[in-house]
Amino acid sequence: MSLYPFFDPKHLSYMGEYMRDYMPVATNYDPPTSSLNADIVNTDEKFSVNLNVSQFKPDELKINLDGRKLSIQGEQDVVTDHGKSAKSFSRVIVLPEDVDVASVASSLSDDGKLSIEAPKLIPVPGRSIPIRKMPAIDQQKY
């Protein structure tokens, strides 16, 4: 025998009404930022990451590269007469094997667009290796 036929979701809405009186109301909070989604472009010529970080100042941003792991972080603390608020984000992106990690560069536009770019490594084409003829090796030297 199942209790599912006796379940009535209308009764849960009454609980929400009672709990509303006991929970503090959150006001003056910024909504979660959805504009920090990373735009990643991976072409034959380059790899790039683009972020809208217009809510952060340049000194509130950090970009680190550890091997192929690219870390992008932003942290902001705002103190006013009415209180304190904090915003932060963190993105970690593993760069593909064919990216030249020594050439990773970043730029920040005036309108807050952060761009991180790296060229792709030039692939070494396969080639034939010629065999040179050498004089016989004296066995007594070994």
TrEMBL record:
PROSITE patterns: SHSP (PS01031)
Domain SHSP: residue ranges: 24-140
Superkingdom as given in the UniProt entry: Eukaryota
Biological process per Gene Ontology, one example term: protein refolding
CC terms in the record's Gene Ontology section: cytoplasm; nucleus
GO molecular function, one term: unfolded protein binding
One Pfam match: HSP20
Family per record: Belongs to the small heat shock protein (HSP20) family.
UniProt cross-references to PANTHER family, sorted A to Z: HEAT SHOCK PROTEIN HSP-12.2-RELATED, HEAT SHOCK PROTEIN HSP-16.1_HSP-16.11-RELATED
Protein name stated in the entry: Protein CBG04606
